[in-house]
Every structure is written in structure tokens, then in C-alpha cells.
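User: Here's a structure from my thesis project, written as C-alpha cells. My advisor, Dr. K., wants to see whether a designed sequence matches the one we expressed. Can you design one independently, without my sequence as a hint?
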């Protein structure tokens, strides 16, 4: 009896390795996206708090120099927010690209696994067929031996 050997086993192994590498890259891109998104959230929260504080200071009275200082700081913060928003868009795009690649690799691996399953079923059927032929021959020989006696 011959042991089962899938003819595309090496290709399947390579595809699985590629899938694992793609999965690692995807997880890294998700982590990067979350990091940039959290930074954006913190900047927006900081701007909101600063705006509220400035409004409180305006209500009780502030010097023109202090008002100008807060205005410049908020402008600077808005530029930083715009820059980080662009980074968030880029990180999201990169994450989506890696997700698509991961889905493609998963699909490829599943195709090869399905082919292996079908090939193994065909192998088992052929083994069963050969075994049945062998058993038929043995039973025929046994029957002929009894007739000869």
C-alpha cells in the first residue's frame, strides 16, 4: 500500500507561509492605523479642551496678548490635526490594501486545501477499488482450490 502524498504539498506550504506573512503585515498595518487614529483623537480632544478653556477665559476677561497666544496655538494645533488626518487616511488605505491581500491569500490557501481534500478522496476510492480487486482474486483462488479438491 502506497502512502498518500499530495502532489501540490510544497505549493500549499509556500502559500500558507505567504498567507502568514501577509497576516503579520495586516496586523502591523492595523496597529499602525490605531496608533495614528488615537493620536488624532488626542489632538482633537486637546483642541476641544483648549477651545473651551479659551471661551471661559474670554467670559471672565483676558488680555489681548493671551487671546492672540491661544489663537496661534489653536491654529498650530489645527495644522497638526490636518497633517495627522492625512496620515490616518494613508494608514487606513494601507490597512485596507493589506486586508485585500490577506483575503486573496486565504482564498488561494482554501483552494489548495479543497483540491487536497478532493485528491485524497480520489486516492481513497482508488485504494478501495484495488483492495476489492485483490479480495475478489483471493476469493476466486480460494473457490478454485476447493473445487479442485
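Assistant: Designed independently from the structure alone:
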Amino acid at each position: 500500500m502506497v502512502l498518500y502524498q499530495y502532489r501540490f504539498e510544497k505549493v500549499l506550504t509556500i502559500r500558507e507561509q505567504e498567507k502568514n506573512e501577509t497576516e503579520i503585515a495586516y496586523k502591523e498595518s492595523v496597529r499602525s492605523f490605531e496608533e495614528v487614529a488615537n493620536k488624532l483623537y488626542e489632538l482633537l480632544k486637546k483642541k476641544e479642551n483648549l477651545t473651551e478653556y479659551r471661551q471661559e477665559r474670554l467670559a471672565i476677561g483676558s488680555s489681548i496678548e493671551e487671546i492672540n497666544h491661544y489663537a496661534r496655538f489653536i491654529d498650530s494645533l489645527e495644522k497638526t490635526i490636518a497633517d495627522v488626518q492625512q496620515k490616518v487616511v494613508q494608514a487606513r488605505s494601507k490597512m485596507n490594501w493589506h486586508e485585500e491581500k490577506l483575503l486573496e491569500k486565504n482564498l488561494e490557501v482554501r483552494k489548495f486545501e479543497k483540491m487536497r481534500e478532493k485528491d485524497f478522496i480520489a486516492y481513497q476510492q482508488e485504494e478501495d477499488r484495488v483492495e476489492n480487486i485483490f479480495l475478489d482474486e483471493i476469493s476466486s483462488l480460494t473457490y478454485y482450490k476447493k473445487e479442485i479438491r
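When you compare it with your expressed construct, this may help: Residues 64-148 form the longest helix (85 residues).
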